[in-house]
Amino acid sequence: MNDKPLKVAVLGCGSVGSQVVRLLQEQAADLTARVGTRVELAGVAVRRIDAPRDVEVPAGLLTTDAAGLVAREDVDLVVEVIGGIEPARSLILSALDNGASVVTANKALLAEDGPTLFEAAEKAGRDLYYEAAVAGAIPILRPLRESLAGDRVTRVLGIVNGTTNFILDKMDSSGAGFAEALEEAQELGYAEADPTADVEGFDAAAKAAILASLAFHSRVTASDVHREGISEVTAADVQSAREMNSVVKLLAICELRDEAVAVRVHPAMIPRSHPLASVREAYNAVFVESDAAGQLMFYGPGAGGSPTASAVLGDLVTVARNHLAGARGVGESAYADRAVLPMGETRTRYHVAIDVDDRAGVLAAVALAFAEHDVSIQTVRQEGRGDDAQLVVVSHEASDAQLSATVEHLRAMEIVREVTSVMRVEGTSE
Questions:
Q1: What domains are defined for the chain?
Q2: Which of 31, 119, 146, 256 is 20 to 30 A from residue 372's alpha carbon, by CA?
Q3: 58-89: per-residue pLDDT in tens?
Q4: Cβ-contact 387, 359 below 8 angstroms
Q5: Whether residue 123 lies in the annotated active site
């Protein structure tokens, strides 16, 4: 047992930060045994000293001077849970420059400017750990970075946003529309008053960039990720998926395509037989495929103060052990430097619903439009008659560019009143 305590500074005391502080206090004895020395709070940086909090912070440890806290010589480790780009980036860089290792849950910053942080950690000879940045308490980043380091990961398919999963699950189970399901999510605290980051896919895109970077040993930023949200998903889309024995999920998809990386976030239909289809309410799950290990699935609560704090404390213990041993953990692995494919070259299957005139020759004309753009049709069915006539087409795998050209062609046809829905189909083999 080392006699010198390890000093920890916590930046932020909101829903996650307050739980980090609580766990540091309640589990002090266990942390001491696991780390090999006492883990003590050096300070907690907040915006307002007098703001109400979910945890009692020991007297004298609260401060509004975050910059001064991370610059202290006695601080060994900094936990950043304030989120956003600035001042988080400057504070992390300052902490590393002053000799402290860093544990962060900041997915937005890592997805936008992770290389700058990793390079600073490398230069300083310190650790930068971030398990809590993706999927809350679910241990997914460490397996990608360490457990599967000897394998070749080919695909990562995940539900990584609890808000959107709750909304889509309610739409599937109750038949509710998007607006109604979102309102329920807000009432229950699963969605923010301004849900844009969640429902438009920004949160999931940041996580997808982090997952792809780790899985494929290449630098991927949020700007590389094709992003679509769920605000345009209708009850009719969900019902159509049900008729195909499928469900609609917002998926983060990272895959290798001819040694290039394809990364996208969008709603998609997946068969109810797929493991991700059973992920309900606000839970998260990540499905990993690799050459040697095969298929792996990681499931659990993907958000919330306590689950996320659990991931933070796991990183803290690892970094503390490294500190005592005078060692560093695994840093950034970007040796493969793979190119990121544009969305137009990404291939998948598609579900297309088309309102058409109910007359002879319509099906043949629609099939010809698909054929002209080299999109093969797997199934087609007609629903309704007369003014309610609709064709529902499910394609074989095609590129996004091919499908987009097909949809534009359909919209220009006299017999097509409207292309009412275009949704990708994932998780099936042809």
A1: 6-136+305-325 (3.40.50.720), 141-301 (3.30.360.10), 343-425 (3.30.70.260)
A2: 256
A3: 889 999 999 999 999 999 999 999 999 999 99
A4: no
A5: no
